[in-house]
Design goal:
Layout (H helix, E strand, L loop, with lengths): L1 H12 L2 H12 L3 E5 L2 E4 H4 L4 H19 L6 H24 L8 E2 L1 H16 L10 E4 L5 E4 L6 E3 L15
Antiparallel strand pairs: 1-2, 1-3, 4-5, 5-6
Length: 172
């Protein structure tokens, strides 16, 4: 039972990248910089700041695309690159912001910090995106090929290859 709990915990942690990318995408519209009671978001800044939203969305799409086709480990590289781009971009923009002569009048708001933390969470979550084993195929007593679902072990006809298990929904 201990290994099952560990396995279930690992499956839950596989969504850490989705959570981080979602935080980055949502916080793009939250207050990033404030001055004299006014706040502006990443969206308000526009221009190259739209890159932050773009890489967040690409991370989300890649996770769900590769999860759907049963090859979640292939999302690792896309999410890693997108998260790294987001982190590096925000660090460079922060350094550029600090070199501005009006820095004392401005303050960094929670949205900018949460956006950066979202990318960091997404990058950490990549380590939990594991390889999903393909369905196993064997011959039965009638010399017919049969498949076994890699998740629940249910038997399926060989013609089911590439389809989804009707018991648990995993890709065969």
């Amino acid at each position: 039972m201990g290994s099952q709990n560990s396995s279930e915990r690992g499956k839950g942690l596989s969504y850490l990248s989705v959570i981080g990318s979602s935080i980055s995408a949502l916080c793009f519209f939250a207050p990033w910089v404030g001055c004299s009671g006014q706040s502006i978001s990443g969206a308000d800044m526009g221009g190259s700041f739209w890159l932050v939203l773009l890489v967040s969305i690409v991370s989300l799409i890649s996770f769900f695309f590769f999860k759907n086709v049963g090859q979640i480990s292939k999302a690792k590289i896309v999410i890693s690159v997108c998260s790294a781009i987001g982190i590096i971009f925000l660090i460079f923009k922060y350094i550029d912001f600090q070199s501005n002569e009006f820095t004392e009048a401005f303050e960094i708001k929670w949205g900018g910090i949460a956006t950066l933390l979202g990318f960091i969470i997404s990058l950490i979550g990549v380590s939990f995106l594991n390889y999903e084993a393909p369905a196993k195929m064997t011959l039965n007593s009638d010399n017919e090929f049969i498949l076994f679902c890699p998740n629940c072990g249910k038997e399926h006809p060989a013609a089911s290859l590439g389809k989804f298990c009707d018991k648990c929904g995993s890709k065969l």
